[in-house]
Design goal:
Protein name: CXADR Ig-like cell adhesion molecule
CATH architecture of the largest domain: Sandwich
Radius of gyration: 27 Å
CATH class of the largest domain: Mainly Beta
GO cellular component, one term: basolateral plasma membrane
Organism: Takifugu rubripes (Japanese pufferfish)
GO molecular function, one term: cell adhesion molecule binding
Distance between the termini: 98 Å
Strand content: 35-45%
CATH superfamily of the largest domain: Immunoglobulins
Largest sheet: 6 strands, mixed
Membrane topology: Single-pass type I membrane protein
Length: 232
């Protein structure tokens, strides 16, 4: 007689990534972060164990992929990526036990990007992606008046912060009297403000002597600190 064995794909087992944590993490610069990647091996996964962590970072002109840290041939390669040398380590002294997580210390803005943990043990192969956003506190803005401040003419005040996670939030106020801006003042309506999210401008139409009060511009990244600057 004949015996028919049926294998249902939904019941098949194999290498699996078991981590179910958040796929997006926000951290402040200088802090540390643990990127989770636990896995489970099956009996049929008999090949050598390879673990690779890669970073996909975006620049203005292109997207670039770097290999950050590797595990292969029972050995960890933790100094593989020069910008993270000495700052990235496997969480477990022996990743073969099912923990491919990594710890990254001294976070920098350049560490932001999409990280992928890939675990391979033939015939099994699985991967997991997560987004890391490193928040940078805004630096003190540098401010100036764009052009001469002549009575009867429009005046444009400009400020820019060289550092800070975009988009930055700007507010303007006077530092004297009731701190209210002139009713005709308009903030951030110029093309350069829309293109450069680190800058802000304030237009005061029909400049009058009584409007010549000290003004302050404060910028804030919610939850990440604030800074300010004065215009005489």
């Amino acid at each position: 007689f004949c015996v028919c064995l049926c294998v249902f794909p939904g019941l098949a087992s194999g290498l699996e990534i078991t981590t179910t944590g958040p796929s997006s993490i926000e951290k402040a610069s200088g802090q540390s972060v643990k990127l989770e990647c636990q896995f489970h091996l099956a009996a049929e996964d008999t090949g050598p164990l390879d673990i690779e962590w890669s970073l996909m970072a975006s620049t203005i002109s292109k997207r670039t992929k770097w290999y950050v840290i590797l595990y292969s041939g029972d050995r960890a390669y933790e100094d593989y990526y020069e910008p993270m040398r000495g700052r990235v380590h496997f969480n477990s002294a022996d990743p073969k036990n099912g923990d491919a997580s990594i710890n990254l210390t001294g976070l920098k803005s350049s560490d932001s990007g999409t990280y992928q943990c890939k675990v391979k043990k033939a015939p099994g192969i699985r991967s997991r992606k997560m987004l890391l956003i490193v928040m940078v506190k805004p630096s003190k803005p540098r401010c100036h008046a764009d052009g001469p401040t002549e009575e009867g003419k429009d005046v444009v005040l400009k400020c820019m912060s060289s550092d800070g996670t975009q988009p930055l939030k700007y507010t303007w106020e006077k530092t004297s009297d009731n701190k209210l801006l002139p009713a005709s003042a308009v903030m951030g309506k110029y093309a350069q403000d829309l293109q450069n999210k680190r800058s802000t401008s304030l237009k005061v139409p029909y400049y009058r002597v009584e409007n010549d009060k000290r003004m302050t511009k404060e910028l804030e990244r919610p939850g990440r600190g604030k800074n300010g600057s004065h215009l005489p």
